[in-house]
Amino acid sequence: MMLTTQNTAACFMLAVGLIVGFTNQPAAQAAAEPPETPVSYSSEQVDSGEDRYKKDCVECHGDDLRGGMNGGPPLRGLAFEEKYFGELPASVMFGFMSATMPPNAPGRYSENTYADLMAYILKHNGFKEGAPLPSDLDALDYIIMSK
Ligand code: HEC
């Protein structure tokens, strides 16, 4: 009786070990080329981003970025953070935004303008000012969205 319980426990631990081992695999591979620099932006970028945001984004995403009249999701808060922040490269959010926003004319701005808009959003999510945010996807791949 004892033995069976121990065997079951041992099997369970082995199974857990295998699952942990497997799920660790991709993370270990991704860590081979980690993006290094924490994201930052300049105050000039925030200023121009704010102008553009108030013209073209506010109706859907709201004055305080918590969602607006025309059904855009909040650009701050837990759901947004989980999607774009942490160990993710800055290129994920930049890429999505520049390819899909604004919905009636996706990709209509220059890359610099998308970087300005992203700076404005970052500021409202508590990220710190510093070196300007690059506007080039390859460079953004090496910047992580951590505070
Ligand atoms: C007509 C309404 C509308 C306008 C205007 C608009 N958006 Fe959006 N936005 C949306 C909707 C709807 C989504 C969700 C799209 C999806 O998840 O596929 C979204 C998603 C986003 C996201 C990703 C949010 C997430 O949770 O993944 C960002 C960032 C964003 N918009 C930025 C902008 C910026 C910057 C502008 C101004 C240039 C803008 N949007 C203008 C409706 C709008």
From TrEMBL:
Keywords: Heme, Iron, Metal-binding, Signal. It holds the Pfam family Cytochrome_CBB3. Residues 1-30 form the signal peptide. One of its GO terms (molecular function) is metal ion binding. Coiled coil: none annotated. Residues 30-50 are annotated as: Disordered. Residues 44-125 form the Cytochrome c domain. This is Cbb3-type cytochrome c oxidase subunit III.
